[in-house]
Amino acid sequence: MSLENHLSTLKYAFPKTLPILAGFAFLGIAYGVYMHSLGFQPIYAILMSILIFAGSMEFVAGSLLLGAFNPLSAFLLTLMINARHLFYGISMLDKYKGTGKKKIYLIYGMCDESFVINNTSRIPSNIDKGWFMFYVTLLNQIYWVSGATIGSLFGSMITFNTEGLEFVMTALFVVIFLDQWLKERNHISSVIGIAASVLCLILFGTEHFIIPAMLIILIFLTLIKKFITKHEVIS
Amino acid sequence: MMTITQQIIIVASVVAGTLLTRFLPFMIFKSDKPTPKYIKYLGYVLPPAVFGLLVVYSLKNVTVTSLAGFLPELLAIGLIIILHCWRRSMLLSIAGGTIFYMFLVQSVF
Asked: Which own/partner pairs from A222-230 qualify as long-range (CB within 8 Å, at least 24 positions apart)?
């Protein structure tokens, strides 16, 4: 691909990532400040945001480093907190096909936000799909790592009132959900997603609801498979 | 306090766990072979449910025991729905909802 094509792809991808820029700059800085407050040198937040690149898990990892040395439990806890990535992978199997070597990075950088943008964006035919998804993923990681770096270096100097800014991530997910809702032919999957999650949140609490919710979603979607495939064409 | 080596092992364990959750579906269902029909079906119907899960996940700390625990979220999401149905502009809906939410939690509640 020519430099010109790279630039036009980047130009097309950048506006789609603007909400993530706002959210990750804020949350990344918050993460850097948090790691600083735990007493870690800036290099910890910087390396962990590059290597782990899974927001909530990085906060947890910070506290794991202060606890007892138990790598196996750290590994298992990570599997539980990040299990939702399995669903992202299943949903992106076909979309990541034919993207060449970039695929490794697309999977490596598949955070919640990159997944929703790459899964929902309609990409015009003159834009290369693989490079578009690559730039979305890369920009998002740059925002996150920059935020974490700034926070761990200068976090204590930020003075303006940022209370409530973290809502930008909720707003993004609500808008993605709403956009999907407005264009889908039936709302079965959307309703199952909300209902199973709310039910499990009430039953299991904020720390343990994701995996039971994923299981219920999986069971329901499997049970209604016959109904869905009869009524919808799977491309 | 852990030694540097122990810290590296802990971070490596977290990295390995995260990599596994991201790469596993792609390791099981190789791109040179056709994806099984059931998995294809899941890939097609899962995203709306996952978006719902993410909405609930991002609102998991909302409480119903006090007005301030849920009303800012409820009002901001209401505004997002109105803005989005009106203009269908992702940036406008997200920016409008977030600024309104910040105003509510900083000045009203």
From this structure: A222/B38, A224/A188, A225/B38, A225/B41, A228/A188, A228/B41, A228/B45, A229/B41
